[in-house]
Amino acid sequence: MKPFFDFLIKKFVKDHKNVNSQDVRQAYGKLGGTVGIIINSTILILELIVGLFLNSIAVTADAFHNLTDAISSLVTIISFKIVNRPADDKHPFGYGRVEYLTALLFAGAILVVGYEFLRNSVVRIMHPVTVPFNKISFICMLFALPLQITLNRFTNYLGNTIDSSALKASALESFTDILVLAMVIFSLLVTRFTTFPIDGYVAFIVSLFILHSGIELGKEMVDTLLGKAPSEEFVEELKSSVLSYPYITGVHDLVIHNYGPGRYITSLHAEVPCDVSVMEIHDVIDKAEKEIGSKMNMYLSIHMDPIKIDSPDVRELKETVSKEIAQITGVLSMHDFRVVGNDENKTLIFDVVLDKACFNDEKKELISEQIKGIISNLCSSYRSIVTFDREFY
Q: What stretches pass through the bilayer (predicted)?
């Protein structure tokens, strides 16, 4: 199917490889939504005809489920259009989060539909009605299955191509539809061999699938809107990109805000040598901000942290301390290491990044005592001042 999918993309999406462009993302969203409307509307018509003709609540339930899917596809098109609106005075970071809001609203609609059919299926179980087998109706339902599979694979392909949460969520919903449709077909097939009123039971299971998909989609969007952490791959790509520039020896204090797919506002601290011209370092930082920001489609702000790295003794001490405290449970990394004072009264000052689970007063106090013990064993005459940090991603 991939060659056919690529053909559609090349046909309807101009400059389709430039997936960081908001115009291109909108074209992908429009294509995915349009195909979704066509396929879901076709299945909806087929299932409504079959469901009403056979008086099957299971088939009718899935038909209305496909109605919500068709509406979802329309909402996808609209949301991508709104998302592409430029930033303004009221929304300086643009309208990217509209995609998450529309998906959340759609999750609510799914829950309402699921509840209604759950209630109706219970009534049908308590007051069963025999659904007759009809060959033409059965063939119509079989025809709908490959359509749903095609939609699922196409939507998932688009979602992965542009990394769209809305399209990925739609693909997940479509996969649920495949399972539900297969169960409905099974229900129709069973009626050919038995008079057992299976219709209500299958409708009950279908409604549970509908409710589950609505809950999962809703949870995913709520997590995103509340500030879900970005992927580890994204963070590692950002760190390695920054570290690839001259003079930058360390990266820490990353703060990453998500304002919609492909819209990140990011700040971080970069460790640089203190004995290099500020103007020279500034040019490097400025270049990194612009190039990485353009490459990863984000607004990037880098704060310079000058550190003294020309002393072999300081470098060796830093490596030793870093190695030792890395053995402490909950310690992720160390940065901004420096030595101040004269020969008799030296103080080690550094920051330690803790795991989120350890960022509370009790565990910070315990880790602080462990670090003091390590410093005392390494160099008993040195004092230590430790600041605890956490990562905001």
A: 35-57, 95-115, 135-154, 175-194, 200-218
- Answer yes or no: pTM beyond 0.85: no
* Gap between the Cα atoms of 288 and 303, Å rounded: 11
Task: Write the CB contacts of 305 (distance below 8 Å, at least 6 apart in sequence).
Answer: 250, 252, 269, 270, 271, 272, 335, 336
Helices 57-83 and 165-190: angle between axes, nearest 10 degrees: 170
Structure tokens at 298: 């984000």
Please give the angle made by the CA atoms of 201, 204 and 207, to the nearest 5 degrees: 155
Which residues lie closer than 8 Å to 6 by C-beta, 6 or more apart? none
Assign 260 to helix, strand or coil.
coil
Each residue of 299-323: pLDDT tens digit? 899 998 887 656 777 778 888 888 8
How far is it, in rounded angstroms, from Cα 303 to Cα 282? 10
From the number of C-beta atoms within 10 Å of its C-beta (0-12, 13-18, 19+), residue 30 rates as middle
Q: Return d(Cα 118, Cα 116) in angstroms, integer.
A: 5
Domains of the chain listed by start with CATH number: 2-226 (1.20.1510.10), 229-309 (3.30.70.1350), 311-393 (3.30.70.1350)
Measured in degrees and rounded to the nearest 5, phi and psi for residue 301 equal: -125, 125
Closest CA to 35 of 139, 167, 202: 167
Give the residue carrying structure tokens 């046909």.
11
- The span from the CA of 63 to the CA of 242, in Å, is 51
